[in-house]
Amino acid sequence: MHRFTVKFNLAEFENLDQLALLADQDYNLGDTSSWFGEFRGGLYGFYSRLFGVMRHYAEVHAWTPSVRHQHETEYHLSSIMFHMDSALECLVFALNALGWISLPAQFRDVADAKALRKISPLDVIGDATRTPMLLPSSGYGIIFPTLQSLWQGELTLIQQIRDLHDVSKHRRTIYEGGQCRLDSPPEFYELLGVPDVPEIRSQYWPMAEIILKHEPKLPQGHRAVPTQAGGKLLEDIVPSFAALVEATGKAALKDALLTVPLTERQFRSR
Fold first, then answer.
1. Is the backbone peptide bond immediately before 132 cis, with ω within 30 degrees of 0?
2. Which of 62, 90, 105, 185 is deepest in the core (most CB within 10 A)?
3. DSSP state, residue 121
4. Tens digit of each residue's pLDDT (9 = 90 or more) over 60-96
5. Quick one: CA torsion of 56, 57, 63, 67, rounded to 10 degrees?
6. Residue 267 located in a structural domain
7. How far apart are alpha carbons 238 and 258 in whole angstroms?
8. pTM of this prediction?
9. Does residue 111 lie within any of the structural domains?
10. How many domains does the chain have?
11. CA dist., res. 59 & res. 61, Å (int)
12. Within-domain flag for 116
């Protein structure tokens, strides 16, 4: 895969969807409180957010036959952060529904509007920085233990995505700097009639590396100067997120196959 594109392997999520549909049948768990609609709505929201990540990640790195707006990089960057953070939110919304029909007392009630508003990735991973410490919802250790362990091992990545999204949404820019691509396609400028003047041609350059703000939630004067090893690039975070998504699909399906209480393991033929 080209380093300026990202793709997501959704095969295991599609299998998870089929397992949930099997659970929804009357001869299994049934559709109490229309839980399956909540599950699939969350899952499809997750899919659409991943599409957003792919689209904006490709566009911020792509050669296009038009002058780039001075704020274009920040626009794509903030959009990518929204879609990654929202993808996690939507997925947890879906998993909560499947967990609820499997173990109602240990997940948020899909028939309670106030409960639905509280669903977040913190249900899976908790938050040790809060006082008192916020513990994960108890059901995840029972229905999705492999997934929970995976996410708790990726706390740094998940929290960085959440922080960068929060800052870009509510506060300020998260784009620190970076490098542009200089590998234009053959005859790119000539076909557009752009003269061989660096100041003019630079207006067409897409990004090659995007440096993200270090410790974005701290006031500007309180941030530590990141070391070279500690600096974060978008081109590191997005592939790491894609790897997390793929591992999450495998973990969620593995867990559900073992823990969702099905009476019948195959769809009945009609």
1. yes
2. 90
3. T
4. 999 999 999 999 999 999 999 999 999 999 999 999 9
5. 40
6. no
7. 31
8. 0.93
9. yes
10. 1
11. 5
12. yes
